Every structure is written in structure tokens, then in C-alpha cells.
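Notes continue from the previous slide.

Worked example: a multi-chain complex. Inputs as given:
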Amino acid sequence: VMTQSPSTLSVSPGERVTLSCRASQSVTSNLAWYQQKRGQAPRLLIYDASTRATGIPARCSGSGSGTEFTLTISSLQSEDFAVYYCQQYNDWPWTFGRGTKVEIK
Amino acid sequence: QVQLQQSGPGLVKPSQTLSLTCAISGDSVSSHLVTWNWVRQSPSRGLEWLGRTYYRSKWSYDYAVFVKSRLTITPDTPKNQFSLQLFSVAPEDTAVYYCARATSGRFDSWGQGTLLTVSS
């Protein structure tokens, strides 16, 4: 089970934000982060816990291994307000967290 | 740049069969490097992986336990697409359905999504 916290985060543009994802058992580094905007499909941001996907800006970074993971956005831009999901692909079946919504403060 | 284009109805009656298709451009359904997946999303259950197909030396299929008895995923090599059939749908199957490509477990390309409503 993937648990994300908090469920909602109110942040001002330009601020640094850190999202948390916890696995109920170790998933080693087999973890991905996605961004989803209203009415759109999820978009891959980070895979293998810390590797940015193609085209993802450097202000997005991932860290962690085992059961504790974080996604950090160093300076929030207007296009970053969205819902963020983590997904483990270490154990079958692959599972997602319930998401953290980052909203404008 | 891979693109996935979904097609299929948005409204299905209870007990009927949902059929969705995902057309692939920029990659091959027969690729040995990726898998082709269906994922759904609802407010009550969040994002759920449903199943996948992939080709290595033969076609293989994996399904989530909770839909295994009702789900079939079929590749179509000549048309470079894959499809989902979900039998005996119920209101609880109401969700947005996505097709997605997975590379080493991560979903790196997604279709646009199809909002399915199960209602009489």
C-alpha cells in the first residue's frame, strides 16, 4: 500500500514544496511520481525514485529508497499546481498512492 | 514521440460489455521493450492498474485479481493497437479508463482517457 501525505497542500508561487510517499514494505528504488492536471492524463515526472523523465524541469527532484520517498519542487510555478501521485513497480501488481493536491494559497 | 489514441463508447448499460481501443503511433505493439496497459481512475478507488499485454517471444497477458474473470486485453498487430473488453459491467466500473505504455514498470505514455459511465 502506498500512502501519500498530506492529501492537500496550500502553497504560494515561488515556495518550495515537499511531498511524501510511504510504502507499506520496501519497494527498493522502483518508484515513480506523476503529475495530473484537471481533465488530463497523468504525466511521468520521476522514475527510479530520483531520475527525471524527459522534459521535466530541474526544479523537480525525487529522493528516497525502501519505504520513504519525497518529491520536491524547489520553486513552485503556476503550472505546478496539480495533483501528484506516486506509484511502485517493485511488487506485483503495481499500485498507486491516493495523491497529494497542491493548490494555490 | 509515442502517442496513444483511445476510442470507444462513454456510456454502457449494466451487465453489458465495455470495449475500448488504443491506437499506437511512434512505437510498436510488438515491441520487446515495453508493455501495453489499461489503468482506470475513479474518485472512490483512485488509480488502478487493470491489466497488460506484451510480446517477447510470444504474447503474454497479466490481469489484476479483482477484474481477472471479466477482463480481456487483445493486441492487434496489423493495426498496431490493443483493446480492452470488460464484461458484465456494473455501476462500480464507472471511471476514466486510460491506456498507457510502461517501460520497466513506469507509465511513460498515456492515452487521453475515456470517461465511462455505467447506467441504464
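Summary box: Residues 14 and 90 of chain B are 5 Å apart (CA to CA). The longest strand of chain B covers residues 46-55.
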